[in-house]
Specification:
By secondary structure, the chain is α/β, with parallel strands linked by helices. The protein contains eleven helices and 14 strands. It has a seven-stranded parallel β-sheet, sandwiched between helices. The structure holds nicotinamide-adenine-dinucleotide and uridine-5'-diphosphate-4-deoxy-4-fluoro-alpha-D-galactose.
Length: about 350
């Protein structure tokens, strides 16, 4: 076990100085959420094995906020390590981002995905229960809805018709959390179903840093914009959408991070009223954009028409997916603020400032 501490813990006094364990906090969404939490006065303790991230991201979180992050390097699969962390820190809440997330890779390595995402979560839940930390916010995904029959997607739509092992880990974990809550209502659990997170912090210091060739549209487009790849590959233009390309609900990662702060505030109220509860929210903008919309918007930002080629459909892709965000607006008081232009602008800035990701 290796433990790296990059900061110190102070004794918390006010409600806002609570200790939040962030699993996977060095990753794309986790690092942006750390920034928002630190800026709100929370203490952030990150557990991450850096399988898909870099400790440099956490240094940059400290640079952006001027605050310390406590970092324990290790895997959720290592129960002894995790117990040591829980013995060293007093946690009030856990935000659980840690997991493998590449859809295509999950089809090739299902066992690794089930082992990491499910077993890692089981170990976390066992340790949380042992140390009586029963407040959990979990990164779920719009992928649990599969192919929706109507749009926009509300939280009560049927779930489970997922087409790949990654998506199934999200669906299975949602069901498992529900069983755990049903058996013991001391638990407070919030499932956040993200739509398509893109963008980066406006400082350009943190952003999405995929290993190898990006699977997702925006990181690929950003690399075409800076000349890493010659053209964008559009996976099919014969979908049932206005221009034939897939339509998704892209959300700025900073808006998404702020959604976690709002969810945490909601959970704090639930804890104060001593009612364990399980809640589910969509986090999206409610607006769908096509692949062509994205290419046009990004071309405007980078000042040249980005080249593309239309190729075959990608297996498992659906026509359209966008959220109804009414529930999050009404219950969390949260609404995404940044538009597509801002999402592209921030993605581009991050890509230009960090052509090799976190490697200097
Ligand atoms: P990411 O890969 O950037 O972050 C995940 C982090 O978890 C990484 O830092 C990785 O090193 C860490 N990790 C993985 N397995 C671990 C383990 N066993 N122990 C400790 N750390 C481990 O991904 P992200 O985009 O920030 O996604 C965060 C969460 O949100 C994931 O659970 C993902 O499935 C979910 N999600 C992401 C998207 C998206 O498009 N980015 C959409 C919906 C849901
Ligand atoms: N696309 C391309 N070319 C590319 C990549 C994607 O044309 O190089 C298209 C896809 O066909 C799709 C759209 O761009 O129509 C978006 O694709 P992404 O891969 O960026 O995103 P997905 O909606 O397929 O999936 C993402 C995450 C999943 C998550 C889901 C819902 O990868 O993990 O959003 O949250 F489950």
């Amino acid at each position: 076990m290796s433990v790296v501490c990059t900061g110190i813990i102070m004794i918390q006094k006010s409600n806002l100085e609570k200790n939040i364990l962030i699993t996977g906090g060095a990753g794309f969404i986790g690092s942006h959420t750390c920034v928002e939490l630190l800026q709100k006065g929370y203490h952030v303790i990150v557990v991450d094995n850096l399988v898909n991230s870099s400790a440099e991201a956490l240094k940059r979180v400290e640079e952006i906020t001027g605050k310390k992050v406590t970092f324990y390097k290790g895997s959720l699969l290592d129960k002894e390590f995790l117990e040591n962390v829980f013995q060293s820190e007093l946690f009030h809440y856990v935000i659980h981002f840690a997991g493998l997330k590449a859809v295509g890779e999950s089809a090739l390595k299902p066992l690794e995905y089930y082992q990491n995402n499910l077993t890692g979560s089981f170990v976390l839940l066992e340790v949380m229960r042992k140390y009586k930390v029963k407040n959990l916010i979990f990164s779920s995904s719009a992928t649990v809805y599969g192919k929706p029959n109507t749009l926009p997607i509300t939280e009560d739509f049927p779930v489970g018709c997922v087409t790949n092992p990654y998506g199934r880990t999200k669906f299975f974990l949602e069901e498992i959390f529900r069983d755990i809550y049903n058996a013991d209502q001391e638990w407070n659990i919030i499932l956040l179903r993200y739509f398509n997170p893109i963008g980066a912090h406006e400082s350009g210091l943190i952003g999405e840093n995929p290993n190898g060739i990006p699977n997702n549209l925006l990181p690929y487009v950003a690399r075409v914009a800076v000349g890493t790849y010659p053209y964008i590959r559009i996976y099919g233009n014969n979908y049932n959408t206005p221009d034939g390309t897939g339509v998704r609900d892209y959300i700025h990662v900073v808006d998404l991070a702020k959604g976690h702060v709002k969810a945490l505030e909601k959970m704090e109220k639930d804890v104060d009223s001593r009612n364990g509860i399980m809640r589910i929210y969509n986090l999206g903008t409610g607006i769908g954009y096509s692949v062509f919309d994205i290419i046009r918007a990004f071309s405007k930002i980078c000042g040249r028409r980005l080249p593309y080629r239309v190729e075959e459909r990608r297996a498992g892709d659906i026509d359209v997916c966008y959220a109804d965000t009414t529930k999050a607006q009404q219950e969390l008081g949260w609404k995404a603020e940044f538009d597509l232009e801002r999402m592209c602008k921030d993605t581009y800035r991050w890509q230009v400032m960090n052509p090799n990701g976190y490697v200097k």
